Each structure stands twice: as C-alpha cells, then as structure tokens.
C-alpha cells in the first residue's frame, strides 16, 4: 500500500479535469480575403510579377526582429496569428501584446497559440487577453490536472512524462496571411536584445508572398488540432478585463518612451527606415513543419513522420560544403557517421554551436562533447560561441556580453538554406514539433555564410582543434592576443551540469 502513496497523493492534490471549453471555429484567410488587405495586395502583386516566388530577408538583429513584429501588427487589417514555445513577460512582450489588443479593437482577429509551459505563472494575464471578443488564446498539449501549483504540476507531469516532455517548439508570426516571420525567436526580451543581463544570438527569416499562406496552413493544422485547447478551459477573466490590461500596458509604455535606452535606440535606428519590410530576395521556397499529432505518438516516430525526414527527402547530399548552426547540437552516433561519409566525399563541414560557458543547458553540451573527438578526427570544423566575445563584427550577432547562441539554420553548398526552430538534437528530431523554411537562393545562402563567418571570428567563438595525440584545445582572441585553453573554458558547476548529460539514457531526451 505504501508504494501507492505518492500516486494517491498526486491524485488528491491534482483535483478534477476541467470541463471542455467551446472552441471557436476559425481558419486562415482565403485568397480573396488576403487580396483585400494592404499587405496581401502588395505581396500577391509582387509575387505574381516574379513567377510566384516569395520574398525573404534574414533577420539576425534582435531589435530589428522586434521592430518588424510591432510594425506588422500595426499594419494588420484582418488577422494576426502567433505561435510560440515561450512567452515571457518583459518590455518587448508587453509592447507586442498591447499592439495586438489595439489591432483587435480595429477588428483584427488575433489567435495566440502557446505551448502549455508558456502559461506557467501567466494564466491571469493571458486570460485578460483572451477576454477580448476578437482574441483567442489556446494552449498546446496542456496538462489537464494539477495546474494549481508547481508542486502538483510537477507531480502530474511526472505521471504522464511520455507525453508531457514533448513540446510544441514552433515559432511563427503571420499577418493577414501575407507576411510571416519564423525562426528561432520566442517571445521574451532575451530574444530581441532587450535583456540587460543575457541575450540570445538568434535568427529569423521574414517571408512574404505565397510562402506566408503555406505557413498559415501550418499554423491552422496546430490551431485546429485537439491538443490545442482554449485557455478558457483552465483560466478565465472578468468580461472586459482586456480594457484594464490595455490601459495598464499603455500607461507603462508611456513611462518607458523617454527613459528606456532600448526604445530610444530603436527610434534612432528605424525611425527613418525607407520601407517597412526592407529589401527582399525573391526565390522559391517551401514551408515545412511537424504534424502536430507527433506529440501523441507512442515512442519515437518514424523518420518520414518528422520535419527532419521531410527535409532530408528534399535534399541531395551536398557536393562541396555544409554549414550547421545549432544552439543545441547533439549529432548522435548516426549523425557522426553521416558527417564522416560527407567528409570522406570531400564535403567541408562547419558546425557552430554554444561553448559550455555560453550554453543555457550544460547537460546538452555534455552530450555533444562526447562526439567532438570523432567529429574533429573526420575533418569537421567546430566553433563554439563565447559568452564574453568582443562583438568585433558589429553585426549584432554573437559577441554581446552574456550572449548565448539560439540560431537554428543550415546551408547546403552555395544555393540552399533552411531557417527555423529545429535544433540538431534528439529532442527536435523525435519529441518536439518544429517549423521552418527551406529556400532555394544563392544570395540568401551567401548571406547566411557571411553571418556564419562573423560568428566564427576568434573574438566571438572558440575554434576547437585536435592534435595528433587526440588532445583537444580551444583557440580564441583576447584583444590582440591569441589564447589557447586545454580544457573546456568553463567553471565547476557547468562542468558538473555537462557531466549529467553523459549519464546513460539522458542523451535521447536532450
């Protein structure tokens, strides 16, 4: 009987399953509705003049990625669809949600789809947003019992770990089905270079034209899935609570306009921007996403049931070079074997990931570290972002104080690239759902390589090398001085965290 005590306690603490809430039927705008909007008429016209291609621009700067999101909300006329794994409180999220409420007041339909973990500690705030008649918030893969406290939530997640460790990792921002932003950025100050303590070096891609409609179809597949449950099932606010929330958000913004350095810098940089979207590169591309039902599968899905499988099916092996940029890089034995095959075929392979000192999840670094000797022995070039780089490039990429890499991108030879939410690790491959865009464009491929070269600068990243005896060393630049470390440049606690990532059975969950 005593063995059942933890289970009985969890059930007593968890309470009952909340009753189902009504899900309002909605779907992406139809083509004639898109054409009736300003952004839609422009994007469709531009695409038609270019034989149906879509327009793209890489967004490496966090402040620009934020400014574009805010400006697009102001331009929205019919719909705003937002999908995010994380939605932290902060100055950028407050501005964006305030503008989303203003858009709803103009009659714009706002749909906010968050992974359930994003609702932790924010249900009251989200319920106030949800109280607007033109705003609906849904949670993906929500915990049905035990949401009242961290203790009960942890207990109930532990009882359903096979499903609860699988998360919706997608990031997407779509306005009027005409313009979209996808990539690595969640909602939070650290993703838009607005955090005073730590910022992520990240990358989005702005996409206009037919590709935006494709991404909208992906959003709809999640929005309409049974795992996307209305927030109202778990939390509600008084009717009209959105009015008080909007007043509070705008009063707060008024206090920030003159004294906040981030907003001052934004005004100086973008006040005289010639166009909203800037110069676009028009090319053929394809939106790819995991089926939302991936979260419900028992065990590992088949490769052809994943975004990674879809990407592999569309790509031939590179002939000359391969670039992999991943915040969390755990190639597994199969991945190392594949990279070895490419190296033997003469393909130059470059990997950029986080150093142990820069990563926000040391256990992932520990799982990756076991593969470094084999990768280096096969000629793979390894670069690891420093947390204290000098930002010698001035591009707003890696190198800011307290930085950590969050980019997920790949470049294949000189003509194709993929940008999205997909990390090269077992979690993105098997467990989480992801989204991204595969683009055929030598110009964008070259732009991604240029960003990578900035990230590989010795003032920004460590170059990991292996000598003839198999010993590893880390090479970087401090000012005008070349420095070499003969062990991972990190402290004791990070080394301990990395050790945890090497424990049996852990790698497959990272």
UniProtKB/TrEMBL annotation:
<dbReference type="GO" id="GO:0030572">
    <property type="term" value="F:phosphatidyltransferase activity"/>
</dbReference>
<feature type="domain" description="PLD phosphodiesterase">
    <location>
        <begin position="164"/>
        <end position="191"/>
    </location>
</feature>
<dbReference type="InterPro" id="IPR001736">
    <property type="entry name" value="PLipase_D/transphosphatidylase"/>
</dbReference>
<dbReference type="InterPro" id="IPR025202">
    <property type="entry name" value="PLD-like_dom"/>
</dbReference>
<protein>
    <submittedName>
        <fullName>Phospholipase D family protein</fullName>
    </submittedName>
</protein>
<dbReference type="GO" id="GO:0032049">
    <property type="term" value="P:cardiolipin biosynthetic process"/>
</dbReference>
<feature type="domain" description="PLD phosphodiesterase">
    <location>
        <begin position="401"/>
        <end position="428"/>
    </location>
</feature>
<feature type="signal peptide">
    <location>
        <begin position="1"/>
        <end position="20"/>
    </location>
</feature>
<dbReference type="Pfam" id="PF13091">
    <property type="entry name" value="PLDc_2"/>
</dbReference>
<keyword id="KW-0732">Signal</keyword>
